[in-house]
Amino acid sequence: MRRTEIIVSSHSDFCFGVQRALNIAKEALKKNRIVYSVGPIIHNPQVVSEFSREGLKIINDVKEICALRAKGKSKKINLLIPSHGISPEVLRKNRIAFIDTTCPLVERVQRIVRDLSRKGYFIIIVGDKKHPEVRGLAGIAGKNFRVLKNKREAKAFNFPQGASAPAEKKLKRIALISQTTASVSNFKEILSEIAKKDFKELVSFNTICKNTIDRQSEAQRIARRVEAMIVIGGKNSANTSKLAKACRKINKNTCHIETREDLKTEFLKGKKSIGIATGASTPPYAIKEVVERIRRNDI
Amino acid sequence: MRRTEIIVSSHSDFCFGVQRALNIAKEALKKNRIVYSVGPIIHNPQVVSEFSREGLKIINDVKEICALRAKGKSKKINLLIPSHGISPEVLRKNRIAFIDTTCPLVERVQRIVRDLSRKGYFIIIVGDKKHPEVRGLAGIAGKNFRVLKNKREAKAFNFPQGASAPAEKKLKRIALISQTTASVSNFKEILSEIAKKDFKELVSFNTICKNTIDRQSEAQRIARRVEAMIVIGGKNSANTSKLAKACRKINKNTCHIETREDLKTEFLKGKKSIGIATGASTPPYAIKEVVERIRRNDI
Question: Average pLDDT of A238-261?
């Protein structure tokens, strides 16, 4: 019998921010029977399910908290801000107390955006406008901002024109920051396009977190050496999706799965070497399960 | 007889900085018999010749002043800093008093460079390392700087590595500024290349002066409409050389001349329309002379 060679990325633990958020949530659940989270605390459905069983309830909007409060249940409400952060303006407006699990690296980007916004820069956020981190940053940026996803959008970008454009925009001072879990190559492509625009000043902060960068480069290194690559993590996880995309660029035989159940026998068939990489919010036990699944296929 | 159509650029006066420098020099020559200038006061040999006749002497290095001073002639020395500025460090070191004609827009770039250098940025100066303005900026930048001329040099650029690299460089904070008389498209190409590098922070100031930008775009607009283009100005003038290059990109029939004497009859032969553009340091009478030369050809 031939055994498939399995190479697991050395960057396969929860990232610092995810681990910290889970620890805070665990403590909160020890003290309280129910804790509300604005959206999933991290982007891994399996981990979120575990926390749901312990009493973590997910709501989609802060307004739901206001509704509960209106029903006189305010004393029982423990609100938790997930690791991706939310716009503090939303909380301030609604005067809601909260338990904060926002990743300190996301908080750093929030501080940079707040500072740039005060200085009158037009802010470009590189990322996905539907992602909670980006929505939080957009809330802080005020009115003068735009979210750009890729090179194509960057090429088409123009400063808002006409009478409705605020005076600051006329100064043409652009600032560029990135979602912490963006792809480095995509960020550089976008900056490179923006550099060609008409501006007086351009400030750019590469705010992609080191864990995302290391995870991507290590996964790509493995993808180069193996016949097939498995990326494990939430389908709603930005860093996992980008990890899968980065690996696929190098190795066409890449699949993105959430759990071992998603893994097809056909995919494993005849592969002499398989690489495994995980997202920042993928629980470490997921690797063990996938390895077992590959080993069962060997028999 | 057919008359050649002549279109003269509406941006054909001395720029503000050049006019100001000449006014200051005139005043200084009224008060003193001899004034020394470190390099040509502006980059137009014909204008410099006129001032030489009035008593303006050009020296190549501040050291020549020190030599004169050593001979006991210090009381008679009136030193003039030309419009492109020089590194103030050179003057400070030699404790030399001076009359300053540095263009206020160049001074602004000097202030930006001084500020960036203090904050520990690695400074990239877009320009020609032999140009007095760039040499002045380099003197202010300290040790952590590099002058880049074109896209090719920008592509090859890397942060200095190894033990000899100062600690600040490890932070990978890059700042980019430009010689005030650079080409806008070249500046953008260089920035676009630098944007692809590995950095934490990139700050870029488009310090090309508005007069340079307007002069280039107006000359290019004319070059598109005419059969031939004449660019008048010093061969040692950065903005004039770039003006000629920008016109040549659009109209192959472009020639760069200093005076009407450089104009060949062959070049004028059979041309139905000719455009004229001048550099920021070209005296307005040069246009009149060239127009007369074209008209003589018409007869």
Answer: 95
Name the closest residue on chain A to residue B210, using Cα atoms: A200
pLDDT of residue A166: 54
Q: Which residue of B has its CA nearest to A196?
A: B188
How sure is the predictor about B76, in pLDDT bands with cuts at 50, 70 and 90? low
CB contact under 8 A, A195 and B204: yes
SS (H, E, C) B168-191: HHHCCEEEEEECCCCCHHHHHHHH
pLDDT at position B168 over 80: no
Residues pairing with A274 in the sheet: A6, A228
Substitution target from B205, B213, B216 for chain A, most A beta carbons within 10 A = B205
Q: Range with the lowest mean pLDDT among A36-50, A158-172, B213-227, B236-250?
A: A158-172
Same domain for B187 and B255: no
Q: Which positions ≥6 away from B219 have C-beta within 8 Å?
A: B9, B11, B229, B231, B243, B246, B247, B275, B277
Whether B231 and B184 share a structural domain: no
Judgement on whether residues A96 and A111 belong to the same structural domain of the protein? no
The complex's ipTM works out to 0.77
Mean pLDDT of A125-150: 93
Same domain, A24 and A79: yes
Which one of B38, B70, B102 terminates a domain? B102
Domain boundary among B161, B177, B204: B204
Asked if residue A186 and residue A235 are part of one domain, the reply reads: no
> Of the residues A27, A89, A107, A133, which is catalytic?
A133
A202/B188 CB distance under 8 A: no
Average pLDDT of chain A to the nearest whole number: 89
The whole-number pLDDT of residue B71 equals: 78
Residue B33 belongs to domain with CATH number: 3.40.50.11270
Catalytic residue among B54, B64, B133, B258: B133
**Residue written as tokens 């032999």?**
B130
Residue A216 CB neighbours (<10 A): 23
Task: Tell me the HSE value of A47 on the side-chain side, using a 13 A CA sphere.
Answer: 28
Do residue B47 and residue B81 come from a single domain?
yes
Mean pLDDT of A33-37: 88
| Residue-level pLDDT at A159 | 77
CATH of the domain at B261: 3.40.1010.20
Contact B197, B174 (CB under 8 A): yes
Q: Which residues of A touch B204 (CB under 8 A)?
A: 195, 201-204
Is B33 within 8 Å of chain A by CB? Answer: no
- Which is more confident, B123 or A33? B123
Q: Do A204 and B200 touch (CB under 8 A)?
A: no
| Domain containing residue A179 | 105-204
Can you read off the two tokens belonging to residue A231?
A: 């990326």
Output DSSP code: residue B83: T
For A199, the closest of B194, B199, B206 (CB atoms) is B206
Does residue A243 sit in the same domain as residue A191? no
Please indicate, yes or no, whether residues B95 and B186 belong to a single structural domain of this protein: no
Is A133 part of the annotated catalytic residue set? yes
Contacts of A203 in chain B (CB under 8 A): 201-204
Q: A1 or A77, which is more confident?
A: A77
Domains in chain A, number: 3
pLDDT above 60: residue A185: yes
Using pLDDT thresholds of 50, 70 and 90, give the confidence band for residue B277.
very high
Q: Do A195 and B191 touch (CB under 8 A)?
A: yes
The answer to whether B49 and B286 are in contact (CB under 8 A) is: no
